[in-house]
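Entry 14. Ran structure prediction on the chain below.
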Amino acid sequence: MLITFEGIDGAGKSTQVKKLKKHLTENNHEVLVLREPGGTLVAEKIRDILLENKHDITPIGELLLFSASRAELVQQTILPALDNRAVVILDRFYDSTTAYQGYGRGLDLDILQSINTIASCGLVPDITFYLDISPEDALIRKFSEKSIPLAFEENELDRMESSGLDFYQRVREGYMKLVEHNDRFVLLNACDDPLALHHRILNHIVPLFSADRTQ
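Output, structure tokens:
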């Protein structure tokens, strides 16, 4: 089973991924948690390039780097794990590319869809949890967790974080369009209590495992 979590930075994806992994592991499931970009030696190197704020990368170059990282992760790690009946939990997948590079950067959505399909080998998540939060609230949360004052310097942000609130608002709007047109998405309010969110996530996950056992 492939479970993905989506949302802008500061939405709380990592917290929910950890809680879900703990629950599934305690219930005797083999669980593999991965992040995008990253997860393999090559993909982690690409991650460093993408996030270092000293790099000036074109939107198309950014798209292709994210896609190259994804292709490595899918073929080397995700597909073998799924073949072994593991539960794979991904912190971001190709929906991030659609939201960030498509709606955020303004790249052609049809071209994006083709590249996403190639890079993911046609893999589609069984369920995707989208944690929705405004860019303003996400920024406050992110920097309060890091104990960084809101009057931060630009070099305290990674390259993606430096894109600005308008960019992240377009990304958020893109995610909402994905939620509207894809049944596999579950929309969650990222500002709700983390434990309550965890229980809502479990309410969607448990029936999937029950259905899987009957097949």
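The domain at 2-214 is CATH 3.40.50.300 (Rossmann fold). Will compare against last week's run tomorrow.
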